[in-house]
Design goal:
CATH superfamily: Vaccinia Virus protein VP39
Bound molecules: S-adenosylmethionine
Number of domains: 1
CATH topology: Rossmann fold
Strand order of the largest sheet: 3-2-1-4-5-7-6
Distance between the termini: 21 Å
Helix content: 40-55%
CATH architecture: 3-Layer(aba) Sandwich
Number of strands: 7
Strand content: 15-25%
Shape: globular
Amino acid sequence: MGQAEPVGQVAGVEQVAGVEQRGQPEIATNRVVDYYETAEHRALDLLTGGQIHLGYWPKDWRQEEGPASPAADLAEAASRLTRLLVAKSRVAAGERFIDIGCGVGGPALALVRERRCLVDGVTISPFQQEQAVARATRAGLAEQARFYLADALALPFAAASFAGGWFFESIFHMGHRPALVEARRVLQPGAVLLLTDVIDCGRLSEEEKQTARELCNVDYLTIDQYPALLADTGFELLELVDLTERVALPFATRFAAAVADRRAEILAIFSDDEERLARFAAVGEKFANIGYLLVACRVPA
Ligand SMILES: C[S@@+](CC[C@H](N)C(=O)[O-])C[C@H]1O[C@@H](n2cnc3c(N)ncnc32)[C@H](O)[C@@H]1O
């Protein structure tokens, strides 16, 4: 079975009926592009091995001793979160899967290796798309994992192209409703869609929400908004799991130590700017106020 061929621009924001608009889409996506091309994201890539997401800590991290190698702990937690999603994906060998907001390709390649499926990844960042293609080529998986520069709200694929898909820590940049409507269009009947999302769990101040929106177009939903959102956009809810205690809180606690572990390499990325390094190390703490959700849903058969 071949991969889905891009069919050009389809279903742009203004073409999707009943969709709320959040400012001018072009400005919003430009903000996201800038955000992912910063040295901070190169540093995160270094720490997590091509996975631009948080991590999963299965045990009660409050009871544990601090890890011997905080950097290895962070990288392993990022891989564990990827493995969790891979395990929940129901895609079979040879089937097509869409990774919407694919970053630099780490999770897509893990899925291809485990399931022997065909992945089409899309990102709004030209830098990430190049990195993802290079990563797939280095891994000898460029045929199985392809990466496109495209907007999640106008996916360049025909309707019902994919047997499964995910938004792996990406939907909060896009506008949840239009992103789900567009994902629903390209998924086949019966396809399972997974997503992880940063959410408002009641600890975020209005100022924090505003800052995140201005920085990179983040919109935080609450867990309670999900069932109606999925029903409205044509999905059946399968699973809704609050992972705040397993993902966001341990990340908030452990990120700075991981940065300290790889200080020299990260400082080189920041051209020896110590203040920038300190600001980067402090980013982790912000996740103490943010919730984390895992969702599985299905297009009705
Ligand atoms: C936190 S990163 C997650 C990357 C990847 N899923 C991973 O886990 O490594 C968010 C991703 O969403 C992508 N993104 C944000 N808005 C987008 C949009 N409108 N269209 C396509 N991709 C988008 C970003 O470019 C980035 O790749």
